Amino acid sequence: MKNKILLMVLFLAFLSTFLLEKNPHESIKANHAALIYTTGAPIEKTGAPGESNCTVCHSGNVNDGSNLSSIIFSGSDDFYTAGSTYTMTLTLFNGSPKNGFQLVVLDLLQDNDAGSLIVTDAVNTELIAGTNRTYLNHTFSGTSLTQWDFDWTAPNSYIGPIVFYYAYNVTDNANNAAGDHIYLASDTLQPKIPSLIIDQSNSITFECLPNHLDNTIKVRITSHKNQNATIKLIDISGKELTLLDKFNVYVGDNDLLIEPPVNLTKGLYIINLIVDGKSYTKKFII
């Protein structure tokens, strides 16, 4: 009788364990995520458009890491130049003795890979390839850090604003997922499109400076003589969207603010500048 009772107790214990762990992923999340992903997170966990984040495998809620972390950029004023390579540093201000991160770089218009991530510290960071995106991850050694260095090469052409999306995990170093805290953040770089010399004989230059925060376009014209001008905003199909009628361009810098239609979609557009009967164009991305 005692043997039967003992067998029944063991059977019930086994059945209870089986039912509780019928979802293996939940078991991993509850007990083993901190150990399994110490060498780096699986792909698509940055919180970028179309992606999940670290809470898929770790416990806890998603927190805003915008003011608790930063990406230091070796360029100036958060503007990138096409084809240039920059030194980057991801720093956690709220880190612990054990941390992890994943980072991806996408263009804002298409959400595609933007430029190339380059590992400069192979001991503490590594690249992993997704279907259409490349990710920078911590390594096992890198979990002891709160700061990671890497390089990034900008695309060879200007594709608009570029966003560094990243997620990071601040752990309690207890080798389980229960005390983990997940944070999401991003950092945006704008294209530094150089001024275009339009007509040397008239000594005119102009540049387009889209402001993606308030959806306006600043057109800066530099002239060495007083002239009459008009400006048109045109889409790539040739449709005229906005006309800034006759105005005067005076000697020096002239800043003109254009407000495109409120329903303007993201994409490639053309500024058509007409000065004293001569027409000049410049392409830019909104």
Short description:
The protein is mainly β and 286 residues long.
Write the layout of secondary structure elements.
Elements lengths: L1 H19 L3 H13 L25 E3 L4 E5 L5 E2 L4 E8 L6 E9 L8 E4 L5 E5 L4 E5 L8 E7 L8 E9 L10 E11 L4 E4 L4 E8 L4 E8 L3 E9 L4 E10 L2 E7 L9 E8 L2 E8 L1
Parallel strand pairs: 1-11, 3-11
Antiparallel strand pairs: 2-4, 4-9, 5-8, 5-10, 6-9, 7-8, 10-11, 12-13, 13-14, 14-17, 15-16, 15-18, 18-19
Structural class of the secondary elements? mainly beta
Look at the structure and give the mean pLDDT: 79
Distance between the first and last residues' Cα:
80 Å
Provide the CATH superfamily of the largest domain: Reeler domain
Sheet-strand content, in percent, reads over 45%
**Cα Rg:** 27 Å
Give the tally of structural domains. Answer: 2
CATH architecture identity of the largest domain: Sandwich
pLDDT < 50 stretches: 14-36, 195-201
Shape: elongated
CATH class of the largest domain: Mainly Beta
The tally of strands reads: 19
Following the backbone from N to C, one meets helices and strands in this order, namely: HHEEEEEEEEEEEEEEEEEEE
Largest beta-sheet details: 7 strands, mixed
In which range does the helix fraction lie? 10-25%
Q: CATH topology of the largest domain, anyone?
A: Immunoglobulin-like
Tally of individual helices: 2
Task: Walk me through this protein's architecture.
- Strands 1, 3, 5, 7, 8, 10 and 11 form a seven-stranded mixed beta sheet that branches. A four-stranded antiparallel beta sheet has the order 2-4-9-6, with no helix packed on it. A four-stranded antiparallel beta sheet has the order 12-13-14-17, with no helix packed on it.
- The radius of gyration is 27 Å and the shape is elongated.
- Helix content is 11%, strand content 45%.
- With 286 residues, the chain is mostly beta strands.
- It has two helices and 19 strands.
